[in-house]
Q: What sequence folds into this?
């Protein structure tokens, strides 16, 4: 066969292949993505040429065929696209500085977004895994001659005539010995699924289509149902719970962007620094992460975005710093904020039912992004102990939420047809402050742990005081300080930091001096517990809790002053460790409880009979009361639980003695 030409590839350095292998591409396996992308590009070009009237006859069904031969150590990628002439190979393959796609973009400007392969050196990624690369191609142009090009990884190439008779291109890689994994059908299928699953052309291996081919995000939201969105999510994230909500992005100004973003159910250990949103460029998978595009507070969102306007480096492995990236990030943030506002206004029940997960995004976004904060500051809600008057009839069920904007972006949520009325009341901060301005103006009482702080919450509820629940993992160290900065005139106090004046009453009996001891009742109780507990860092206080049923109130409570606790929490956060229960705390003894009165009477009898320390039962009882108060605040470790059980048994034994 006649050799048409031999020569050196035109490059701007002595040998480009070591650069490709070591520096240009960080991951060898992406070579298949690049070659398949070029094939899709060639098929798109043929379609454009046909539409422009430059080609006669019918175009065959677009298809890319992959073939492996382990014996010959080869992998081939064949397409029925536009093909190349000898001159085009010289220009687009031999002269690396040029890109065929760029010329086509100039020629077919209106359809330029359909082109994938304008990343310059994509073809040469084949040399990362191949000892030899061959091209067998026939151009669509009338009278074109088929040509064969080969190169062994050096700057030398050979161009000869070919006996190919069908329009298109076949690229055959003779794999290096250390890269023979790419001659395995399963490995090739896995790469297609990873990088090329949603390409708009059928990809076939062993007579089996190996790509999904349906790019849901490219469709209009009006064409899709909830089932379509859910099935797509399950395909992307198998074995996960269904998402709460989703937004379908579809805009062409000021940049081209498509995508579907899902709000998943969050786990407590969610990491806002690691994104799960996939990045595509014209349906070509680029990266598992797109931290530069998605605002940090939306990182736990799932789904994908696709935009040819996102600037990538030549290997597509990283984004370049660009104003467009920042604008896209702002656009996504704004769309999320707008949709949350629409959902809040149109179907508050559904908004509330999703809040336990969605609220984390909203709160973190308000902290991190000033623009987003202004969008959502009136949408932040809190679970509350407030019970509204239910004597009025319930309003009619809110309409189904499905907002459609002029920009063709769709917002939807799971279970749109179900009644999702919240089972617990929620309120905004402004609503809370307005309701409580007479009882406690500019003061917010909150609960951070309903499990351990329930006793305190009940005390407030019984006195008609409203408590907000700030009990998500973002609240204590981040969101409450943020609220205090935003509402500088408002004081935030945890339910266990102190007892509100409305919860206690004056106990005049405490101020009467006992002639036997020459001490007040309050002084006697304080002294009794101080001696029994013997912990100088525990501050003993005496107060009478207001209640119609003193037996139903706790005999003692542990209080943690707000400022001191906050300092310890911040120190623990900075040291990246769990905060230990503070040794400096208040033990508030409820003098109105019958147990405390009985204990005091028992102590008086002991003093009369034989001295203050003659009854060990008093010390046991004081420590037991202290333990019970501590247990409502924290879980005991093994050693303290053992001591508590032993003391409980001893108390019971003494009580049952005859």
A:
């Amino acid at each position: 066969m006649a050799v048409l030409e031999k020569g050196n590839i035109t490059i701007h350095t002595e040998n480009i292949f070591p650069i490709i292998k070591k520096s240009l591409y960080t991951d060898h396996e992406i070579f298949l993505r690049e070659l398949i992308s070029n094939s899709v590009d060639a098929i798109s070009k043929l379609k454009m040429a046909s539409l422009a009237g430059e080609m006669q006859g019918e175009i065959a069904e677009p298809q890319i065929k992959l073939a492996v031969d382990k014996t010959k150590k080869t992998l081939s990628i064949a397409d029925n696209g536009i093909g190349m002439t000898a001159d085009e190979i010289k220009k687009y393959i031999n002269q690396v500085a040029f890109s065929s796609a760029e010329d086509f973009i100039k020629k077919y400007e209106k359809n330029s977004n359909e082109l994938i392969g304008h990343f310059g050196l994509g073809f040469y990624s084949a040399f990362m895994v191949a000892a030899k690369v061959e091209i067998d191609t026939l151009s669509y142009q009338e009278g074109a001659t088929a040509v064969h090009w080969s190169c062994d990884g050096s700057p030398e190439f050979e161009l000869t005539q070919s006996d190919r008779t069908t329009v298109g291109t076949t690229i055959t890689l003779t794999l290096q010995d250390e890269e023979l994994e790419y001659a395995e059908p399963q490995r090739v299928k896995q790469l297609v699924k990873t990088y090329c699953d949603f390409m708009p052309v059928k990809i076939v291996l062993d007579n089996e289509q190996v790509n999904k081919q349906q790019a849901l995000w490219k469709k209009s939201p009006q064409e899709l149902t909830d089932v379509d969105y859910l099935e797509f999510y399950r395909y992307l994230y198998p074995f996960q719970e269904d998402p709460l909500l989703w937004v379908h992005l579809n805009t062409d100004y000021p940049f081209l962007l498509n995508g579907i973003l899902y709000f998943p159910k969050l786990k407590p250990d969610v990491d806002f620094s690691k994104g799960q949103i996939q990045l595509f460029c014209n349906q070509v998978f680029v990266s598992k992460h797109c931290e530069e595009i998605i605002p940090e507070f939306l990182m736990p969102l799932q789904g994908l975005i696709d935009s040819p306007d996102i600037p990538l480096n030549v290997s597509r492995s990283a984004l370049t710093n660009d104003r467009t990236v920042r604008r896209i990030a702002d656009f996504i943030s704004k769309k999320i904020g707008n949709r949350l506002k629409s959902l809040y206004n149109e179907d508050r029940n559904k908004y509330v039912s999703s809040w336990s997960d969605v609220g984390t995004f909203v709160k973190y976004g308000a902290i991190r992004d000033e623009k987003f904060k202004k969008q959502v500051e009136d949408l932040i809600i809190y679970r509350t102990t407030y019970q509204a008057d239910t004597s009025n009839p319930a309003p009619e069920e809110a309409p189904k939420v499905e907002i459609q904007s002029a920009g063709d972006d769709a917002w939807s949520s799971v279970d749109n047809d179900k009644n999702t009325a919240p089972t617990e009341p929620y309120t905004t901060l402004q609503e809370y402050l307005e309701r409580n301005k007479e009882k406690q103006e500019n003061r917010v009482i909150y609960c951070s742990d309903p499990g351990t702080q329930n006793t305190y919450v009940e005390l407030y509820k019984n006195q008609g005081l409203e408590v907000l629940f700030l009990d998500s993992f973002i609240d204590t160290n981040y969101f409450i300080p943020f609220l205090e900065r935003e509402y500088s005139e408002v004081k935030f106090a945890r339910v266990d930091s102190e007892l509100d004046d409305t919860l206690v009453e004056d106990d005049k009996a405490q101020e009467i001096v006992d002639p036997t001891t020459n001490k007040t009742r309050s002084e006697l109780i304080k002294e009794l517990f101080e001696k029994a507990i013997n912990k100088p860092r525990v501050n003993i206080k005496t107060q009478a809790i207001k209640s119609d049923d003193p037996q139903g109130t706790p005999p003692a409570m542990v209080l943690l002053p707000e400022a001191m606790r906050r300092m310890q929490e911040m120190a623990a956060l900075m040291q990246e460790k769990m905060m230990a229960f503070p040794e400096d705390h208040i033990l508030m003894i409820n003098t109105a409880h019958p147990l405390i009165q009985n204990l005091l009477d028992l102590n008086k009898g002991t003093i009369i009979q034989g001295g203050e320390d003659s009854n060990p039962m008093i010390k046991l009882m004081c420590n037991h009361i202290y333990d019970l108060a501590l247990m409502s605040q924290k879980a005991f470790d093994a050693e303290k639980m053992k001591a508590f059980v032993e003391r409980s048994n001893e108390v019971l034994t003494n009580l049952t003695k005859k």
User: Anything to note?
Assistant: The chain has 18 helices and 27 strands. The longest helix spans residues 323-346. Residues 97-101, 111-120, 392-408, 416-420 have pLDDT under 50 and may be disordered. The two ends are 117 Å apart (CA to CA).
